[in-house]
């Protein structure tokens, strides 16, 4: 009976947490649609989430594209299929690696930053001060960050896809002996609009997940430095897991036979 009781408490706790997060998501999106709109906070979030994340996303995509080209060439050589490198690099970056790695980098950089910032504001009672000034914390802190992530992460993913394909192009033309014009032509011929659209949609979903996790755990953090650290850690872990789960679902939706 003790084991069953512990299992029951865990299930009830999970259901309660899911319910609280669902209500948080609904409230965040409802605040994005109703005035007032804090454009200054939204602009700062655009810069922090989009512009400052570009270097890490670009470098990750470039080296991933280059490594992917090397691996595909080495594997294709076993079956005399080295010529498929441009096509596989393009579809691998655009459909999967570009959005997933971009989302995980955003989770590592942005989710942790948002969670730490909002949790610190809670510890130092700045959120209570906002309520005292008749300012809704959800509208002032959560809505601008979530909206900015939904807007900017697809752009980052698109740039990352391009840089990743260029990384494969660079390695293939300088190390593997591919003709530059032929490589680019094969890449353009193989990609479809559907692939690009799926990549951008994934970017929007992953950005929303990353920002929501940071805001949720920041708003619900414990008191003190330990609470801030726990909120930051939990937000990154939850964001990464949900991004990978959402990627599976979206891949099934877009590419299921």
Number of E-state strands: 0
Helical proportion, percent range: over 70%
Structural class assignment: mainly alpha
What string, H for helix and E for strand, traces the elements in order?
A: HHHHHHHHH
Distance between the termini: 46 Å
Sheet-strand content, in percent, reads under 5%
- Spans of 5+ residues with little confidence (pLDDT < 50)? none
What coarse outline follows from CA principal-axis ratios?
elongated
Task: Please count the helical segments.
Answer: 9
Number of domains: 1
Radius of gyration: 21 Å
Task: Explain what you see.
The protein is mostly helical. The chain has one domain. The chain has nine helices and no strands. It has helices at residues 2-33, 39-49, 54-76, 85-123, 126-132, 137-174, 180-190, 193-219, 224-255. The longest helix is centred in the middle third of the chain and has 39 residues, at 85-123. The mean pLDDT is 89.
Topology, pairings included?
Layout: H1 2-33, H2 39-49, H3 54-76, H4 85-123, H5 126-132, H6 137-174, H7 180-190, H8 193-219, H9 224-255
Helix pairs in contact: 1-6, 2-6, 3-4, 3-6, 4-6, 4-7, 4-8, 4-9, 6-7, 6-8, 8-9
């Amino acid at each position: 009976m003790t084991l069953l009781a512990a299992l029951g408490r865990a299930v009830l706790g999970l259901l309660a947490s899911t319910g609280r997060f669902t209500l948080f998501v609904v409230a965040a999106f409802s605040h994005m649609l109703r005035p007032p709109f804090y454009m200054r906070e939204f602009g700062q979030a655009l810069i922090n989430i989009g512009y400052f994340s570009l270097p890490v996303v670009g470098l990750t995509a470039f080296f991933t594209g280059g490594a992917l080209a090397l691996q595909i060439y080495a594997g294709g050589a076993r079956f005399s299929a080295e010529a498929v490198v441009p096509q596989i690099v393009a579809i691998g970056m655009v459909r999967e690696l570009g959005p997933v790695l971009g989302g995980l980098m955003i989770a590592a950089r942005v989710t942790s930053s948002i969670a730490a910032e909002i949790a610190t504001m809670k510890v130092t009672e700045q959120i209570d001060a906002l309520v005292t000034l008749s300012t809704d914390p959800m509208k002032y802190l959560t809505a601008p960050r979530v909206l900015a992530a939904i807007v900017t992460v697809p752009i980052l993913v698109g740039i990352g896809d391009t840089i990743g394909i260029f990384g494969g192009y660079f390695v293939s033309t300088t190390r593997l002996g591919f003709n530059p014009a032929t490589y680019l032509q094969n890449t353009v011929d193989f990609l479809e609009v559907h692939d690009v659209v799926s990549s951008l949609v994934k970017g929007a979903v992953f950005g929303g997940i990353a920002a929501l996790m940071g805001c949720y755990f920041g708003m619900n953090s414990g008191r003190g430095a330990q609470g801030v650290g726990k909120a930051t850690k939990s937000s990154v872990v939850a964001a990464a897991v949900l991004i990978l789960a959402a990627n599976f679902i979206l891949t099934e939706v877009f590419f299921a036979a």
